[in-house]
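Notes, p. 3: input format for complexes.
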Amino acid sequence: MRAITAFRTARMTPSLRAALGFVVATAVAGAARRARALSPSGAVAAVLVGTAAVAAGWDWGALLIAFFVASSLLSRVRRGEKAAAAGAIAAKGDERDAVQVLANGALFALAALGYACAPGAAWQAMGGGALAAATADTWSTEIGLLAPRPPRSIVTLRPVPPGTSGGVTALGLLGGVLGASFIQIVAVLCHWPLGAAVAVVVGGVAGTLADSLFGALAQQRRWCDGCGAATERAVHACGQPTRIVGGIPWLDNDGVNALATLAGALAAASLVGRL
Ligand SMILES: [Zn+2]
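Output follows (275 residues plus zinc ion):
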């Protein structure tokens, strides 16, 4: 017991924490790899993000693990139904690759490195806001796919097929707010300043709304000529290459996710000092 207390209260340098964080992150990413939640490249990216997080502090590491575990578990809830609802449209499977991990985690990792160098509430709001945006987006997608009615475009309000970028449901929006609140609760439990924690939830909700808007207005749209169907895949489920029929050609779903975490980080950081 005394040893644990000593470990907790010991003032570790960021570089020592980074070394320990590397060990912990490698273990967690290895377990996630075995559970098929991460691809090999995704596991490498997760180790980088995890190491940066723990360099900032164990609280940052706890936030990252909370995000990852909750999102992975949520994606396994009623998986069959969700795959049936979105399988025709979604770009990628369950294993997250490096691009997906970094689209969700790169800004959080950069804010963690900033905090490790010069601790301050602005870095916490920025990193927490980015992570809350990624969480809100994941939760709104996972929970929204269970909605009984098809989503509606956030822009035109017309019904769109489940899984369509920019499509929202009331259940999905609620899921996004719950996801952002979950990160805020973990931040409060980690004794983050209340202002930063409140900024985090605002950033999360702003990020998920930005995700839907960018998804509806800017994301590339693909079409499979063979099936006559919209998709996010470069190669359709039927095996035929798809073509881009609208949106910004280079802006795919991962790019939209990265922009959403940026919106979440900026929204949260802009509130620091005003709460
Ligand atoms: Zn097809």
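The radius of gyration is 19 Å.
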